[in-house]
Amino acid sequence: MLSTTGVQLNDLIGWIESKNDFKAFRFEPVVYARLSRFTDDSRPLLLQRIVNANNCSFGTARMIYSTSWGAYQIMGFNLYGQALDCKAKIADLLGDQMIQSLMFDRFLKTINADGMTPRALALSPLARERLALKYNGSREYLVPMVGALRHFGFNVCE
Fold first, then answer.
1. What is the predicted pLDDT for the residue at 4?
2. Three-state secondary structure of the chain
3. Residue 74 forms beta bridges with which residues?
4. CA dihedral 113, 118, 119, 121 (to 10 degrees)
5. When you count CB atoms within 10 A of the terminal residue's CB, does the N or C end of the chain come out lower?
């Protein structure tokens, strides 16, 4: 068991999402399939932003949009959305922990979770549920969250 001293939310989420692998990515075919109805003439502005940032085709932009990236597994549609406004190419993002950390911090602000701590999550089932729903969209995220808190040495209140 690890010491809880110095454990930050990025450590916890990174552990849950990728075991802190900054080069991790996970393609979501269901998200990709939803984009198949768009033609080059009807593509959303967000896909055009991805095309421009990555100097890629519309098909590749759909893949980037539909994939979660890096240690924190932030979806492409979030990375290149207006709130996070990622300007980096996806290949550069995968190679740069600082860019990923910046995007993670921005994402926490967009979901009103900045300032959340692992200690607060360990102490409050309600805080865990709120973060699970905001970060992942599912209560099922509570299971790996509790596991990660325990991995880092926190006593988890039920």
1. 61
2. CCCCCCCCHHHHHHHHHHCCCCCCEEECHHHHHHHHHCCCCCCCHHHHHHHHHHCCCHHHHHHHHCEEECCCCEEHHHHCCCCCCCCCCHHHHHCCHHHHHHHHHHHHHHCCCCCCCHHHHHHCHHHHHHHHHHHCCCHHHHHHHHHHHHHCCCCCCC
3. 69
4. 60
5. C
Q: d(Cα 53, Cα 51) in Å, to the nearest integer?
A: 6
Q: Where are the domains of the chain?
A: 9-151
Looking at the DSSP bridge assignments, the partners of residue 67 are 27
φ, ψ of residue 25 in degrees (nearest 5): -150, 150
Written as one letter, the residue type at 123 is L
The Cα–Cα gap between 17 and 132 comes to: 12
Structure tokens at 80: 């290149």
List, for residues 6-19, the tens digit of each pLDDT value.
Answer: 899 999 999 999 99
- pTM for the model stands at 0.90
With 0-12 CB in 10 A as exposed, 13-18 as middle and 19+ as buried, what is 158?
Answer: exposed
Beta bridge partners of 25: 69
